[in-house]
TrEMBL record:
Domain DUF302: 56-114
CDD domains found in the cross-reference section: DUF302
One Pfam family matching this protein: DUF302
Species assigned in the record: Vespertiliibacter pulmonis
Top-level taxon of origin: Bacteria
Record-linked InterPro entries: DUF302 (IPR005180), TT1751-like_sf (IPR035923)
Keywords: Signal
Gene3D superfamilies listed in its UniProt record: TT1751-like domain (3.30.310.70)
Family matches, as PANTHER family: INNER MEMBRANE OR EXPORTED, SLR5037 PROTEIN
Name of the protein in question: Uncharacterized protein (DUF302 family)
Coiled-coil spans in chain: none
Residues of the signal peptide: 1-19
Length: 149
């Protein structure tokens, strides 16, 4: 009986560890420098008919308050045509949409692009991944194809 409980506890903990790893943003190393990565992604989103809702330059904001940090910009982008029906069906998705991508540069001049996958975006909603695979999932693939080394 104790062994059965032990294995059940281990299985639960292993499942929890896997689940928590899935919550980490996907990280892709860019083949471009920092500013080029920001420009290329912005231009790519626009060329696909997506809207750039905001671009947040965290380094600039830090500098304005007398602080220093590595280059870090968040692009908030999406398509109301794709996102609105999802949010009408499941309003909780408004916490995740529009989509966001973080471009940051490490101290070794490596440029990383971080994003939540389509599966992560819907993970805390009533929406199944299969319902977003062909629209939100395409944005993820577009980013990879555009900047991957």
């Amino acid at each position: 009986m104790k062994i059965k409980m032990l294995f059940s506890a281990l299985a639960f903990m292993a499942g929890s560890a896997v689940a928590s790893n899935n919550l980490q943003p996907e990280m892709i190393e860019s083949k471009y420098d920092f500013q080029q990565t920001v420009s290329v992604l912005t231009d790519t989103f626009k060329s696909k008919g997506m809207t750039i809702f905001a671009q947040i330059d965290h380094q600039k904001a830090a500098k304005e308050d007398g602080l220093e940090m590595q280059p870090a910009t968040v692009i908030i982008y999406g398509s109301p045509k794709a996102g609105t029906p999802l949010m009408v069906k499941d309003p909780t998705l408004a916490l995740q949409l529009p989509l966001k991508v973080l471009i940051t540069q490490t101290d070794k001049n490596r440029v990383d692009v971080l994003l939540n996958t389509a599966e992560q975006v819907v993970s805390h909603s009533k929406t199944a991944y299969s319902e977003v695979e062909n629209n939100l999932g395409k944005a993820e693939k577009l980013i990879k194809a555009t900047i991957s080394k």
